[in-house]
């Protein structure tokens, strides 16, 4: 498959690249990649990327930011940023990605456990994660040409220099999380939100 991976230099994105690159052709991008790059916060940038890419078999979104801040301190700008970046950035990956996909292609985006298990400071993050999950389930019902739409909802991901099992280090390795993306890419599920 020819797969577009957005956020390919991140903690999760690098691990996704690792589990895909021996089996598929991966076009790896982020804001700072070259020559191809994309900013999920800018719809024109997403459209421009797809215009340059030609036909793809799959799109993976492993990027997108939202503001983590105590609820009383969240300002209008924090909501606007969170909605425009992690939510609409990935919604637009789906919207603009569908015409670029081959029949029976797939799009997999990234939400996060804070959708279901909020914590103090997560109001804006929980908002966009839960909204994206609702969008994925609904959009999958109407996706054309057998195109599948799914999300991975990672828990906290351990970074490489943290030893597994150390106190307070609950969470999965990025590799374990990345395998959930591969299962969705290579399987036949649609409208699913998968928690690794
Ligand atoms: N890590 C976790 O524990 C965890 C848990 C649950 C959910 N998540 C979600 O998973 C996603 C990835 O997390 P991560 O920890 O891997 O992040 P990360 O390590 O900060 O990496 C983010 C990646 O996305 C790219 N990126 C950032 N903003 C972008 C934008 N506006 N447009 C395009 N690319 C952008 C970055 O590269 P550039 O800087 O070059 O753009 C980088 O490749 C995020 O949405 C995060 O909320 C993470």
Describe the protein's architecture and organization.
The chain has helices at residues 11-20, 43-53, 76-97, 123-142, 174-186, and strands at 2-6, 25-29, 56-61, 101-110, 148-152, 157-158, 172-173, 193-194. It has a single domain (2-194), classed as NAD(P)-binding Rossmann-like Domain (Rossmann fold, 3-Layer(aba) Sandwich). 39% of the residues lie in helices and 19% in strands. It contains five helices and eight strands. Helix 2 (43-53) runs parallel beside helix 3 (76-97). It has 196 residues and is α/β, with parallel strands linked by helices. Bound molecules: NADP nicotinamide-adenine-dinucleotide phosphate. NADP nicotinamide-adenine-dinucleotide phosphate is lined by residues 6-13, 30-32, 38-41, 62-65, 85-86, 110, 112-113, 154, 156-157. Residues 6-13, 30-32, 38-41, 62-65, 85-86, 110, 112-113, 154, 156-157 line the site of NADP nicotinamide-adenine-dinucleotide phosphate.
Topology diagram in text:
Elements: E1 2-6, H1 11-20, E2 25-29, H2 43-53, E3 56-61, H3 76-97, E4 101-110, H4 123-142, E5 148-152, E6 157-158, E7 172-173, H5 174-186, E8 193-194
Parallel strand pairs: 1-2, 1-3, 3-4, 4-5, 5-8, 6-7
Helix pairs in contact: 1-5, 2-3, 3-4
The structure holds NADP nicotinamide-adenine-dinucleotide phosphate.
The CATH class is identified as Alpha Beta
Percent of sequence in beta strands: 15-25%
Calculate the terminal CA-CA distance, rounded to whole Å: 23 Å
* Strand adjacency order, main sheet: 2-1-3-4-5-8
Oligomeric form = single chain
Number of helices: 5
Low-confidence stretches: none
């Amino acid at each position: 498959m020819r797969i577009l991976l957005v956020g390919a230099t991140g903690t999760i994105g690098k691990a996704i690249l690792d589990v895909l690159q021996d089996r598929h052709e991966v076009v790896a991008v982020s804001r700072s990649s070259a020559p191809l790059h994309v900013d999920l916060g800018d719809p024109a940038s997403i459209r421009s990327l797809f215009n340059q890419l030609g036909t793809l078999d799959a799109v993976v979104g492993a990027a997108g930011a939202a503001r983590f801040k105590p609820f009383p301190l969240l300002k209008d700008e924090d909501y606007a940023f969170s909605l425009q970046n992690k939510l609409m950035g990935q919604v637009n990956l789906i919207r603009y990605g569908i015409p670029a996909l081959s029949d029976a292609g797939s799009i997999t985006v990234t939400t996060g456990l804070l959708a279901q298990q909020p914590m103090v400071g997560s109001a804006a993050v929980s908002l966009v994660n839960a909204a994206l999950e609702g969008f994925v389930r609904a959009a999958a019902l109407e996706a054309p040409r057998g195109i599948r739409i799914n999300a991975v909802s990672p828990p906290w991901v351990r970074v490489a220099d943290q030893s597994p099992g150390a106190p307070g280090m609950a969470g999965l390795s990025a590799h374990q999380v990345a395998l959930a993306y591969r299962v969705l890419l290579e399987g036949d599920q649609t409208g699913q939100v998968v928690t690794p």
